[in-house]
Design brief:
By secondary structure, the protein is an all-alpha fold. Helix content is 82%, strand content 0%. The chain has one domain. Keywords: Cell inner membrane, Cell membrane, Membrane, Transmembrane, Transmembrane helix, Transport.
Length: 176
């Protein structure tokens, strides 16, 4: 294996571990969400005392579940996409379109990251009712997702750009 290929493999391994961490954290948040709603039902119908903090915690947790799951979906390339037109193209055009899509995704992630930072600054002095934590904890998931989308899609685009000419040369060398 060449030095270039081992570097690409190491980068992809690090990104895979980050993606796995996103899935793990989102899964833990889902478990906490289910347990807290169980407590809500128990409190409301058995104890006749409704825990009012569950709704606010659910709003925070759903954001982390959705945004971290979406970022992992970008890494796993399992996000929603229409690939019919891309798949109909020849190999060089298909690779170029794939790179362009990843660059657009990275740009979207950058906008999401920057807008999320503005939202975090805006809500830092406001506390979430019932939880007494800054409102910014709700928008932190958006910032994380935006940054992770930039990391995942941007790195994939860069790696594809770096390997694009090599894969063409390798294909022509094998054809000889």
């Amino acid at each position: 294996m060449s030095a270039h290929a081992s570097t690409v493999a190491r980068v992809e391994g690090v990104l895979a571990r980050i993606s796995a961490a996103c899935i793990f954290i989102a899964s833990c948040a889902l478990v906490v969400l289910i347990v807290t709603f169980g407590w809500l039902v128990f409190g409301r119908y058995v104890l006749n005392v409704t825990p009012t903090w569950v709704e606010q915690l659910a709003l925070v947790l759903v954001g982390y579940i959705a945004f971290l799951g979406a970022a992992a979906g970008i890494h796993e390339d399992s996000h929603l996409g229409v690939t019919m037109f891309r798949d109909a193209l020849g190999e060089p055009a298909r690779a170029a379109v794939t790179i362009a899509v990843d660059l657009v995704l990275a740009g979207f992630g950058a906008v999401m990251f920057l807008a999320g930072i503005d939202l975090m600054r805006f809500g830092w002095d406001t506390l979430l009712p019932m939880l007494n934590i800054p409102l910014s904890f709700r928008t932190l998931s958006e910032v994380l997702c935006g940054g992770l989308i930039v990391l995942f899609a941007g790195t994939r685009a860069i790696l594809q750009i770096l390997t694009f000419p090599r894969s063409d040369r390798a294909a022509t060398d094998e054809g000889r």
